[in-house]
Amino acid sequence: MTKQNHIPSITNYLNDTAHLLGSISTDSILMTVSHLYEAWAHRNQVFLFGNGGSASTASHMANDLSKATIVQGQPRMRVLSLTDNVSMITAWANDTSYDGVFKEQLANLLTPGDTVLAISASGHSRNVLSAVDFARQNGAVTIGWTGQSGGKLKEMVNHCLQVPTDDVGMIESIHLVLDHLVANELYARIKADSDTKPVVKEHLVLEEAPERAHPPSVSAGRSVS
Question: Which fold has domain 27-219?
Answer without folding.
Answer: Rossmann fold (3.40.50)
